Each structure stands twice: as structure tokens, then as C-alpha cells.
From TrEMBL:
PANTHER family in UniProt: TRANSCRIPTIONAL REGULATOR, GNTR FAMILY, UXU OPERON TRANSCRIPTIONAL REGULATOR
A Pfam family matched in the record: FCD
HTH gntR-type domain location: 27-97
Name of the protein described by the UniProt record: GntR family transcriptional regulator
Keywords: DNA-binding, Transcription, Transcription regulation
Basic residues bias (residue ranges): 275-285
Molecular function GO terms recorded: DNA binding; DNA-binding transcription factor activity
Coiled coil segments of this chain: none
Chain spans, region Disordered: 272-293
Organism annotation: Achromobacter aloeverae
Top-rank taxon, per record: Bacteria
Length: 293
């Protein structure tokens, strides 16, 4: 592939819409370089694992100083697009933006919005039935084993844990397994983000009776078992109907238990870095509760 010609960074022209607004701050030179590197990644169709040109070559290509180039690369690293290594064989390498990083950015945006748990369940009622039905033809024996293990872990009567919050998080792992089996990447991505919001941000009032939480857990386990049985029978229509019933029932329980979203900014230390390809899913050790695995 031919090397791009040397180019000079400049500011973009204003549009008719932009002219009617307050003047925007002039972008920093490093930010403009970062945008040009993104364009280079797109034009060369670079994929995760591919290396960027070496730092010196990038400097020459964009006619910028070493400090500006390093600032631009650091910006891309923070965005989760590249990883930077040092040494003779070092440099920038393309990486896939993780679900955790995307969730962090989304939640930091939503921190300043009014989003309730009712809003979340309104969306789940629409998406989860289609997600589950679409996963049915693609579920493997390993997936069914993982679904059964999740059911066992979140069953209040199993004795795996008395921690009802851990059980609720394990409930979400059941949905993540179905999401990872669905070939629709955008639907899968959306539902996994919602699951992560519920996992990280849902809180219940401290005076919620334990038996009410147990009823919620029992109801979830019952429908999870029915959904799994229908999926084993490759009955997508029944899975869709059961998941719609499950979402309606779960929404009612959350209201009864005064579940709320705890608005907060997500820290790097909160992120589990567990995103990966579907076939990388592993069954947890027996007895483990993996709400945030």
C-alpha cells in the first residue's frame, strides 16, 4: 500500500449551521493530529493487532513535533483505539475498543441526564425478547452449560450465596450469555451496555425485606429455566414470548423493591475489562458468583 503524501494539519471550514452558533474554540494541534491518524486508520483499513507507522514516520507525515505526536497518540490510547509500547519494537498498535470503555464514556455522559430505572426497563422490554430469540440458533453446548450454571448460582435455594445483590448480578450474566450468542453486533452491544448499567448502578433500599428479594430471585430462576428449555428445543418464538414475560415481571419486582439507578461517574478502577469474543466465555469455578466477572 502506498505511503500517504506528507500533509499539513489545518482547521476545518465553518458551515452555515456552525456560523449561526457561538464560535468554537480552536482545536489543539495534537487533537487535529489524532483526527488525522483516525483517518489514516480508516483509509488503510487497519484492524486490531495492526501496527501504526513508527512515531518518527508519523511526525514526518503530519509535519509536527515529537511532543505533539506523543500527545496525539496518548489521546488515542485514552480513547481505547491504540496501545502504545516502548523500546526498539515499540510503537502504536490498533486495539478494539472494549465494552467497558464504551460503557464508561456512555455513563459519564448520562451522569448529567435524568435516566431512571423505569427508562432502562422500557428499553429492555423492547430489545431483550429479540436478542434472546436471535440467539437461539447459535447457542452451543458450552453456552447451555454456562446458562445452567448461571441459573444454579442465582437460585436463592442453591446455597451458593446469601448475598441477594450478587444473585441479581448473576441474573444479568444469564442475559450476557444470550447476548454473546446473538450475531447482531449492534443489538448485542446495546443490550450488554444496558446490562452493565444495571450491574454497576442499580441499588435497592437498605430496608428491602429479604423475602421480597428471594421472591424476585425465585421468579427469575423459574423463567430462566423455561427460557433455557425452549432454547434447547430451538423454539425461538417461545423464547421471545418468555423473555417478554420475564422483562415485564422483572420490571414489576424492581419497582416493588424500590430499585434505583445510582448516578455516578465511572472510574477506570471500576471497569472489569472482561469483554471478549463469545467463544472465550468460560464456566466459573463451582460455587463462584461472578456478578462482575
Amino acid at each position: 500500500m502506498a505511503r500517504p503524501t506528507k500533509c499539513t494539519i489545518g482547521t476545518a471550514g465553518t458551515t452555515a449551521v456552525g456560523a449561526a452558533r457561538a464560535p468554537r474554540a480552536r482545536p489543539k494541534r495534537a487533537d487535529l493530529v489524532a483526527e488525522e491518524i483516525k483517518r489514516l486508520i480508516t483509509d488503510r483499513d487497519l484492524r486490531p493487532g495492526d501496527k501504526l507507522p513508527r512515531e518518527g514516520e508519523l511526525q514526518e507525515m503530519f509535519a509536527v513535533s515529537k511532543s505533539t505526536m506523543r500527545e496525539a497518540l496518548k489521546s488515542l490510547e485514552v480513547q481505547g483505539l491504540v496501545t502504545i509500547s516502548t523500546g526498539p519494537a515499540g510503537g502504536g498498535r490498533i486495539v478494539e475498543v472494549t465494552l467497558d470503555r464504551t460503557f464508561q464514556l456512555m455513563q459519564n455522559y448520562l451522569f448529567f441526564k435524568e435516566v431512571t430505572i423505569d427508562d432502562i426497563y422500557t428499553v429492555r422490554k423492547l430489545l431483550e425478547p429479540e436478542l434472546a430469540a436471535g440467539a437461539v440458533p447459535h447457542l452451543t453446548d458450552a453456552d447451555f452449560e454456562a446458562l445452567e450454571h448461571s441459573i444454579e448460582c442465582c437460585d436463592p435455594s442453591s446455597g451458593h450465596t446469601a448475598d441477594v445483590i450478587a444473585q441479581r448480578k448473576e441474573d444479568l450474566n444469564f442475559h450476557d450469555i444470550l447476548a454473546q450468542a446473538n450475531p447482531n453486533s449492534f443489538l448485542r452491544f446495546t443490550c450488554q451496555l444496558i446490562n452493565e448499567m444495571l450491574r454497576q448502578l442499580t441499588v435497592f433500599e437498605n430496608d428491602t425485606p429479604l423475602r421480597a428479594q428471594r421472591r424476585f430471585g425465585d421468579a427469575n430462576v423459574t423463567l430462566h429455566r423455561r427460557i433455557t428449555a425452549a432454547a434447547r428445543a430451538r423454539d425461538a418464538a417461545t423464547v421471545r414470548a418468555l423473555m417478554a414475560e420475564h422483562m415485564q415481571e422483572a420490571s414489576g419486582f424492581v419497582k416493588q423493591l424500590n430499585g434505583k439507578l445510582r448516578g455516578r461517574l465511572i472510574l477506570d478502577s471500576d471497569m472489569s475489562r472482561r469483554a471478549g469474543p463469545r467463544r472465550a466465555v468460560r464456566r466459573p469455578a463451582k460455587g463462584a458468583v461472578t456478578g462482575q466477572a
